[in-house]
From TrEMBL:
InterPro entries: Bact_solute-bd_prot1, SBP. Residues 1-33 form the signal peptide. This is ABC transporter substrate-binding protein. Keywords: Signal. It comes from the Bacteria. Coiled coil: none annotated. It comes from Microbacterium oryzae.
Length: 431
């Protein structure tokens, strides 16, 4: 794949949010029947992005209501409040017919029998539709069974300042492995004494971001975080990946600085690529598009998924829609999800929220064709590796993330950190 520059695009990005574990109790029954009764279909969307709210409530839902001659009651719930509000609604029997959440919540929702198996519904789609959605659908599966239909795709790739690489005589097309990128970062890093004034390469090292960066590295090394419900990150591949990660920030040969800084969620004007404080950084498609919109004269390039043993990058299904297992409006709920995942609507939703579309065919849409950064991310979807969809993953992720912090800070060796995380994770799984 060609290395491509980001071109001008205005979009309203939606942050990649880590879903909280749900502790679901009680029973629920939802309003709205398949007989087209008077009760509206109730739908909760996660997040409070104004562009998304405007698009969904003023354009997409009215279109669905007109096409199906129904009323839809839509509520947007802040991510921080989503889990407790869902818990309360399930306990009170007032949970919505359809609700959005992140893939990280899927396994616990399934374990608590809160969501419908959508496999039979997906099978009613045409083979062309299933193929078109294949790369995103896998992120909504638990043990191979479909429970969530994604609304968008998220991913992270290394972006770079084209002018800085050109000044250093580095050809971006030669950067295909993490070792290639590390060698380039050595040349691009600038220091005053022992202080890095321009980082050659930055990866996400803030809370939770550490585990996401590590997922990309261990996957590229041929390893994985989990093998089914068993911990797999304390492996030779995991140790090698974490050694690479820690060495970016440690010692005289460090190429990264500001350990723990949340640059990924910074405004475009404060992004290290924009300020000149870094030559290469791991970025989400949303952040890259923000930069393109805010700094149209700044040429930013995007590298393909990098490898040690195989190309891999963190990514996959973003937030999506589940159907409440107790809804009385099963067919109508599926109609709504099918509508949201249809070619025209899913692309309109992605464009309105600044996300990667869920369908491969969206590569031919004006939205993607007018944005080289989206083309780059969409092309790498087959190499995206999501977080594991297993029960208690968010708790396992948190203990892993804490130990990754210890390793990055030099408090623990990579091997010791991963063993400690594995021991704690085993307690969570066994508990």
């Amino acid at each position: 794949m060609d290395v491509v520059p980001v071109i001008r695009r205005t979009a309203a990005p939606v942050a990649l949010v880590a879903a909280a574990t749900l502790v679901l109790v009680g029973c629920s029954s939802s309003a709205g029947g398949d007989d087209g009764g008077s009760e509206p279909l109730t739908v909760w969307f996660p997040g409070t992005s104004e562009p998304e709210i405007d698009l969904v409530t003023n354009t997409l839902v009215p279109q669905f209501e007109e096409e199906h001659d129904v009323e839809v009651d839509v509520t947007f719930v802040d991510w921080a409040d989503l889990a407790p509000k869902l818990n309360s609604a399930f306990a009170a029997g007032t949970a919505p017919d359809v609700f959005g959440h992140g893939p990280a919540a899927a396994a616990d929702l399934v374990a608590n029998e809160r969501v419908l198996d959508l496999t039979d519904y997906v099978s009613t789609l045409s083979e062309e539709d299933r193929d078109d959605l294949a790369a995103s659908l896998i992120g909504g599966q638990v043990d191979g069974t479909q429970y969530l239909i994604p609304l968008s795709v998220s991913g992270q790739l290394v972006a770079y300042r084209a002018d800085m690489l050109e000044d250093a005589g580095i050809d971006p097309s030669s950067l295909r492995t993490w070792d290639d990128v590390r060698a380039a970062a050595d040349e691009l890093t600038e220091k005053e004494g022992d202080t890095i004034t321009r980082a050659g390469l930055l990866l996400g090292t803030a809370a939770i971001q550490r585990s996401i960066s590590f997922n990309a590295l261990i996957s590229a090394a041929g390893g994985q975080l989990m093998d089914g419900t068993e911990v797999a990150f304390d492996s030779p591949e995991g140790v090698a990946a974490l050694e690479f990660f820690t060495e970016l920030y440690a010692g005289d040969s460090a190429v990264g600085n500001n350990l723990g800084n949340d640059y990924l969620n910074s405004a475009a004007a404060q992004q290290p690529l924009v300020t000149g404080d870094a030559a290469m950084t791991l970025l989400t498609s949303q952040a890259a598009m923000q930069i393109a919109a805010a700094e149209p004269d700044l040429e930013i390039g995007v590298l393909p998924a990098l490898s040690f043993m195989q190309p891999a990058a963190f990514g996959g299904a973003g937030a999506g829609l589940f159907i409440n297992a107790d809804t009385e409006a099963t067919e109508l709920s599926w109609d709504f999800i099918e509508f949201m995942s249809s070619p025209e609507i899913s692309t309109a939703y992605a464009e309105g929220t600044g996300n990667i579309p869920i369908r491969a065919s969206a590569a031919e849409s004006e939205y993607v064709q007018s944005s080289r950064v989206l083309q780059a991310f969409l092309a790498e979807m087959p190499n995206f590796v999501p977080n594991p969809n297993v029960p208690s993953w968010t708790q396992i992720r948190d203990v892993l993330d804490a130990q990754l912090e210890q390793a990055l800070a030099g408090v623990a060796t990579p091997d010791a950190a991963l063993k400690a995380a594995a021991d704690q994770a085993a307690g969570i799984i066994g508990g």
